[in-house]
Amino acid sequence: MKSALILATTILMTLPASSAIAADVTPPDAEKRPHVVKAPHGAERNDEYYWLRDDEREDKAMLAYLEAENAYADQVMAPLRPLEDALYGEIVGRIKQDDSSIPARERGWWYYARYETGKDYPIHARRKDGRGVDALSIQQANERGDFAGEQVLLDVNVLAEGKDYYAVGAYEVSQDNNVLAWADDTNGRRQYTFRFRDLATGKAYPEELRGTSGDLVFADDNRTVFYVENDPETLLTKRVKRHVIGTDPRDDVVVYEEEDDSFYMGIDRTRDDRYIVIAVSSTVSDELRYAPAADPAAFTVLASRERDVEYQADHLDGRWVILTNAEGAKNFKLVEAPSGTTSRRDWKDIVAHDDAVFLETFELFDGFIAIGERSDALERVRILGTGGREEYVQADEPAYSMGLSANTEHDTTKLRYTYTSLTTPATTYELDTATGERIVLKRQPVLGYDPSQYVTERVWATARDGEKIPVSLVYRKGFEKDGSAAMLQYAYGSYGMSMDPGFSVTTVSLLDRGMVYALAHIRGGQELGRRWYDNGKLLNKINTFTDFIDVTDHLVAQGYAAKDRVAAFGGSAGGLLMGAVSNMAADRYRVILSQVPFVDVVTTMLDPSIPLTTNEYDEWGNPEQAPYYAYMMKYSPYDNLRAQAYPAMFVGTGLWDSQVQYWEPAKYVARLRDVDTGAGPLVFRTNMEAGHGGKSGRFRRYREQAEMYAFMLDQLGLAGK
């Protein structure tokens, strides 16, 4: 039997003559150990790399394999280090390092985050409201380096000192503005610890609330907090607890416990601060409980859960306003109900259901409601005033992203919203709904970038079943559709998450090298409403993958890219997409970039101890049921690897990822090395200190992306351009 570590193979990879990647390096070879994975209905599969799973992340043989893959990646990528450095320098060079966020006012204080040059982490701070103090004046002071009157809440640079990974998940301030609670994570697994500080004295309270989701709210007494506790194994949000600051957390009382493992849980306050709410949500159902923030002794159910009935609710001006798909409103509608309601029978329509308009979110104000919605695969902001008066915020480009921004106060006529596109940096506007006056609060500074040199457009590709798939494109001005260019195509296509076209400081480096960037709005998202999502999940999931392939074929046929110069990129569930399309249409892609990929679908969904599994039966199906098992086996990337020439591939993961466990891509790469007959390199990079989002710090992720893009550019023949 081979060593549990790695054995050298005798076959050296062969590369195109133009590649600078080191070709004289032997890739790792993981040991095979027979292991049978059984399903309750009798189906069995052999998983020879199952041994790479170690929930504790301590197995020496497993760690040695990951380290060997990292060492191999270092050697293979060494000749591309100058290109990686150049890309990193370009990307970071576009970032204004001493930038700050737009201040938001809450209870007499202006809150914001700011960065200092050369530092990785933000400084969270606030300033007292007063004469002449507003969002613009604070921003101008920050730009001058004038921090007089500022109170620093959290200097994350100090908190992160000496730690390989550090992230502040959230922070909350008590209703009297005097107590700070913040949640931090030190390994990327999203298990947060809450800590408390007296803002008047700077004194820290001794207790810590461990194993939380990062959700917490204060009651009106400013000493009682409610927080969500995770299950230590599955990381499911299981229970809400009540804690009194200054007491032992072991005495905390469970206020609510969710028994159904298909539900997530969160806690918040309503818009008017009148209620504390506990919201539980599955893929297809919601339930909300509320209690008076002044006396949160008992929680009342707003509307009992019912399968296929979703809703989200907020409270203002003596009424609940609720976004729901009840009564067949697949694209959702907006309803209202009196404060004391406990039944859907009390719900009355405000905005009726529309087959052509998908309602996504809303925000309540004293004199109007702002609604975020979609039509024709584009976002809109609708302002619904008194007496049924409506108006829409206008956009100026064919493909863009628009949405509600941070609107922390309801007693105002001013609405903040954001606008961006593939060519326009993120811009936050403030619109006075009473006068129509609009001002720019902030436009993302991008140093050395001239938007007039780039072009964005929206095209529609025809899928094999006749559906029209929207695609957002961007390229540098002067580009010619002559079928010679290189192209990067990105998509996600799961969970109803819409991938809207937004500006990226990293993409500019690709456009400046002559590449086209394509964002495919495939089924599985909700760009075209709930129907688009429903037709890309469960027993329709394969539509997601064929849509992506059909978009590629369309763009190549239209001359946007050369047939042999297409790269594809996806992460997490988008990594599942990458695994599926590389199995189904390996010849369409020269390069595949896959980050934290969900590639071992069947084995993971058969194991309810893995975080997210039970929550997602209504997304992927439950393979304990034979029909779903059979369907998932048709596309699961790990199970469909076979002897064929695969594209060059860069795969990344994080050892501490709690959403897609590291062993999925590790097993996938190990098996892919066994069957790949192609000449392209396969690089597997594991972040040994990071989770689902990669390493912490604002610059480190750009270093990782620069390495991945250097790999891609090399394979597309653009390394020297």
Cα radius of gyration in angstroms: 26 Å
Helix content: 10-25%
- Largest sheet descriptor: 8 strands, mixed
CATH superfamily of the domain at 35-93 and 449-716: Alpha/Beta hydrolase fold, catalytic domain
Distance between the termini: 47 Å
pLDDT under 50 segments (min length 5)? 1-15
CATH topology of the domain at 35-93 and 449-716: Rossmann fold
Tell me, what is the CATH class of the domain at 35-93 and 449-716? Alpha Beta
Would you write up a description of this structure?
Keywords: Hydrolase, Protease, Serine protease, Signal. With 721 residues, the chain is an alpha+beta fold. Among the domains are: 35-93 and 449-716, Alpha/Beta hydrolase fold, catalytic domain (Rossmann fold); 100-155, no CATH class; 356-445. Residues 1-15 have low confidence and may be disordered. Helix content is 18%, strand content 31%. It starts with 35 loop residues before the first strand and ends in a 6-residue tail after the last helix. It is built from 13 helices and 37 strands.
Write the layout of secondary structure elements.
Layout: E1 36-38, E2 44-46, H1 60-77, H2 81-93, E3 104-106, E4 109-114, E5 123-128, H3 135-144, E6 150-155, H4 156-159, E7 167-173, E8 179-185, E9 192-198, E10 209-218, E11 224-230, E12 237-244, E13 253-257, E14 264-269, E15 275-281, E16 286-292, E17 300-301, E18 311-316, E19 319-324, E20 333-338, E21 348-351, E22 358-364, E23 368-375, E24 378-385, E25 390-392, E26 401-404, E27 414-420, E28 427-432, E29 438-443, E30 454-462, E31 468-476, E32 487-490, H5 507-511, E33 516-520, H6 530-534, H7 542-557, E34 566-571, H8 573-584, E35 591-595, H9 601-605, H10 617-620, H11 626-635, E36 648-654, H12 663-675, E37 682-687, H13 700-715
Parallel strand pairs: 32-33, 32-34, 34-35, 35-36, 36-37
Antiparallel strand pairs: 1-2, 3-4, 4-5, 5-6, 7-8, 8-9, 9-10, 10-11, 11-12, 12-13, 14-15, 15-16, 16-17, 18-19, 19-20, 20-21, 22-23, 23-24, 24-25, 26-27, 27-28, 28-29, 30-31, 31-33
Helix pairs in contact: 2-13, 7-8
